[in-house]
Each structure stands twice: as C-alpha cells, then as structure tokens.
What we know:
Chain A is an all-alpha fold. Chain A has helices at 2-26, 33-39, 44-50, 54-76, 83-100, 106-111, 117-144, 153-173, 182-203. Chain A is elongated, with a radius of gyration of 20 Å. The first copy, chain A, starts with a helix and ends with a helix. In chain A, 25% of the residues are buried. At the A-B interface, helix 7, helix 8 and helix 9 of A face helix 7, helix 8 and helix 9 of B. Chain A binds a DNA duplex through helix 1 and helix 3.
Amino acid sequence: xxxxxxxxxxxxxxxxxxxxxxxxxxxxxxxxxxxxxxxxxxxxxxxxxxxxxxxxxxxxxxxxxxxxxxxxxxxxxxxxxxxxxxxxxxxxxxxxxxxxxxxxxxxxxxxxxxxxxxxxxxxxxxxxxxxxxxxxxxxxxxxxxxxxxxxxxxxxxxxxxxxxxxxxxxxxxxxxxxxxxxxxxxxxxxxxxxxxxxxxxxxxx
Amino acid sequence: xxxxxxxxxxxxxxxxxxxxxxxxxxxxxxxxxxxxxxxxxxxxxxxxxxxxxxxxxxxxxxxxxxxxxxxxxxxxxxxxxxxxxxxxxxxxxxxxxxxxxxxxxxxxxxxxxxxxxxxxxxxxxxxxxxxxxxxxxxxxxxxxxxxxxxxxxxxxxxxxxxxxxxxxxxxxxxxxxxxxxxxxxxxxxxxxxxxxxxxxxxxxx
DNA sequence: CTTTTGATAATTTTGTTAAAAAAGTCAGGA
DNA sequence: TCCTGACTTTTTTAACAAAATTATCAAAAG
Lengths: 205, 205
C-alpha cells in the first residue's frame, strides 16, 4: 500500500516537474497536455488519471513552487541578527522568485481579474506565511530593544510588503517595459534597500 | 485675429469637454466620433477640423485633466507648514483624481503595453511635476530643521511615490476586485497615512 | 485492483468571410 | 475660415466551418 502511494507520488512529482518546465518556458496557454505527456513519454490520458484537469495541474505546480519559496524563507529568516538583514533577505528571495518564474505567471496576467479561487487561496497562504515570518522578525527586533514597540506587527509588515511591491511595479511600468531588464534589477534593488533603510529608521527610537 | 483664435479655443474647449464626458462614462473604445459630434450638435467632420484623429483628441483631453490635477497640487502644496500635511494632501488629491477618472483610463488598461509615446510623455510630465513639487516640500522641511538633510530629494520622493502606488495596487489586487470599493478607499487611505508617518519618522533626526 | 492507453467525444481556439459600424477624407457651401 | 453631407477606408462584429485542444471512457496491461 505504502509502496503504491510512493510510486504514485513519484509519478505525480515527475508530472509536476515536466509541467513546470513547460509552463515556465511557454506559459499556460501555449503548453498543451499533449506536450507535457510527450515530454514524459506517457499518454495524455494518464495525466488526467493523476490530475482532474489542466488548471488543477497548473495550480498543483504553483502550490509546489510556492512551497519551495516559503521553505527557503523559513529556513533562513531567523538566522539574521537584525531586522534590516532579514528584510533584505526577504526582498532578494522574493525578487529572485518572481524573476525566475516570470513566464510561469502569465496565467495571472492572462486571466487578470477572474482567477480561480484556489489560486487566490495559495496567494493568500504565501502572503500570510510571509507576514508571519517577517512579523516575528519585527517582534524579535522589538525585544532586542532597537526599535520602538509596534502596535500591530502584521499590519506593519503588510504595509511594507505593499510598498515594496510598488517599487517593483513602478520601476517596471514607468519604463514601459513589461519585464525588468538586468539594468532595472539593480535599480529596483537599490530602491528597495533605500526604502527598507528609511522604513526601519522610522521604527527606531 | 485674436477674436478668431478665441473662438477656435472656445470651440476646442467645448469639444474637449464633451469628449471628456463620453470617455469618462463609456471609455475610449465605446465612444464614437459621431456621438461626440452629436452631443455638440456638430458634424463629425468638424471634429477632424479641430483634431487630427480620435487618439489625438483623447490625448488632448488627458493633457487637460492632467493639467487641472497639477494646478490643484501646485496651488495648495506650499500652503502646508509641515511635510506630512503636504504629503497627505498629495495623496488625497491623487487618489481622488484616479477614482474620479477611473473609466477614462480604460484606454490604458486596454492598450496595456503599447501606448502611444505622447501618452507616456504626459505621464512623464505629470510625474516630474509631482516630483518637483514634493521635492521642494522636502527641501523646505529640511531647511526648517525638522528632518535630516537629504542627499537626493528627487530620488527620495520618487521612492515614496512608488511605495504609495504599491499601497493602492496591493490593496486592490489582493481583494481580487478591479476597482476599489468604498470600504477599501478607507483602508487604502489609512495605510497610506501610516506609511507616510513611518517614512517621515525615518527622515527625522 | 491499479495503472495505462488508443479511440473518441466535447469544448475551445483559430481562420474565413461578409455585413455593419466606425474612422477618416474631401469637394464644395456659407 | 468654419462647416457639412456624402464618400472612402479601416476596423469591428457575427456567423460559421475547420483545426486544435481539452477531457472522457471502455478496455488492455501489469
């Protein structure tokens, strides 16, 4: 019984991996179930044995990479001895994640307003995980006594995340390019660091 | 000669006003030149006498409302005796502007990536005007001695504007609604105030 | 009983074309 | 110079067939 499930799980993993590569390189709408099946040398019907439909497959992949992302964050965020480094780490990891998976998220841009609820669930989960991690970092810093006590750490971190998102969006949209070029990456990064700097100073005594 | 130009200007103004109403209520693509002409009881051909084509007409309207927006800002931004109030004022005016003209900007959402250069010019002009106004406010505040000297006020204000933009976007996109509802307006406003508050504290001694 | 597939059904996308709507032009009138 | 009706050109829409893709299923394989 356990062996069977192991086998199933391995196969599911392989499907997820192949799907991820396709989605990443060609986007959601330009990858077909046939192609994914072909990559794995299996029949398309088998994909439907493991996943109910294409969007569910996509969502499963998304759940996986979101999990990986959070794992990196969770495993390292507590290693920093000051809040700023923790924030900077989060910025870097998040930014790398977005850049690396940019094409994967074309599904988002494509369906813009009416994404399936499951997607929003994942987004929400990631967000609250980030929130909780960074929120803890803030609390830790407060207990170190380097910044003033914070009424509502969650609200504060939420605010910061939104603001950082603005830096990304602003830098990209004003240059009227849909995707940040290498040169912008530096600019964005610099700006984010600057914001973090001011923000944290704003929290100090 | 002057009278003739006056007359022309008045007519152009009327056309701009009628066009604005149409664009505002029905968006760019669902407004026809015939309708605008009809509203003004003039022939469509006359519109083409005053404006080279539809997109130029749209751009002229945009230039006008952008000018009005900047005028409000310019005329009031110096009346405040502290930086925070100035920033808050900018937030409010900008937010009202976006909300009021939301439908007008469907042209942006529609053409997403490839907007005519002229549009970007206007956007750029508005942005640098805002930048310069707020930048001055920062300098004034520095000279008052309540905040630390700032290396590059423009860069700083640019950063803040991006961050504020993030608050707008974040609050809207995460609620998976394309347009802020009344309840969100308050939330966004509160968040912006909070950000401003921390940001300014971050600038203080 | 679980896993797999080929064949096939159902749905969505794409391409085509004709009609309708809208943009844009122009000769000429006031 | 300002304006118009009639006209041409371009764009959008609708309808529909063809093609591509998603999804199903009975039955084979292990």
